[in-house]
Design goal:
Blueprint lengths: L10 E8 L5 E8 L5 E7 L3 E3 L5 E3 L2 H9 L9 H16 L5 E3 H15 L1 H11 L5 H17 L12
Parallel strand pairs: 4-6
Antiparallel strand pairs: 1-2, 2-3, 4-5
Bound molecules: zinc ion.
Zinc ion binds next to loops.
Function: Negatively regulates transcription of bacterial ribonucleotide reductase nrd genes and operons by binding to NrdR-boxes.
Keywords: ATP-binding, DNA-binding, Metal-binding, Nucleotide-binding, Repressor, Transcription, Transcription regulation, Zinc, Zinc-finger
InterPro entries: ATP-cone_dom (IPR005144), NrdR-like_N (IPR055173), RNR_NrdR-like (IPR003796)
Length: 162
């Protein structure tokens, strides 16, 4: 890390915080030679720990692949999926942890997917939450209905809008 003023390589971190979108850390540094201050943005790495114990870098593409199957035949566009993946990434990064369980990624998918498409949500939830019987589906559907009834009318997506 060079000082942008005098090219000195040694600097001290005086402040660091997560950027608003949660994908990077912004640091204020002070040059050890000339004393001037400058900012750097460093992308934070985020690893996902799989059930097998293998850790791999978080990837939006993997989130999309995981959800795409549940969205087959549904009115869900690639843009919808890209926005969902972004929302999931922001949610899992907001904790600030460098490593999370794959299960937490799945949990972070449920809420935005429910807003996107209820059928796709049910499909995804049935696999992810190990639905074992019709009863599990029934209670998930009952929950969806209850939430829909309490949702303010203004928040409902108009029919046919896409
Ligand atoms: Zn300097």
């Amino acid at each position: 890390m060079y000082c942008p003023y005098c090219r000195h390589t040694d600097s001290r971190v005086v402040d660091s915080r997560l950027t608003d979108d949660g994908t990077a850390i912004r640091r204020r540094r002070q040059c050890a030679a000339c004393g001037r201050r400058f900012s750097t943005a460093e992308t934070t790495s985020l690893n996902v720990l799989k059930r097998s114990g293998v850790a791999e870098p978080f990837s939006r593409a993997k989130v999309i692949n995981g959800v795409r199957k549940a969205c087959q035949g549904r009115p869900v566009t690639d843009d919808d999926l890209a926005m969902l993946a972004q929302e999931v990434e922001e949610a899992v990064r907001s904790s600030g942890a460098a490593e999370i369980n794959a299960r937490e990624v799945g949990l972070a998918i449920l809420a935005p997917l429910q807003r996107l498409d209820e059928v796709a949500y049910l499909r995804f939830a049935s696999v992810y939450q190990d639905f074992e019987s019709l009863k599990d589906f029934e209670s998930a559907i009952a929950k969806l209905r209850a939430e829909r009834d309490t949702r303010p009318v203004g928040h409902q997506r108009p029919l046919g809008a896409h």
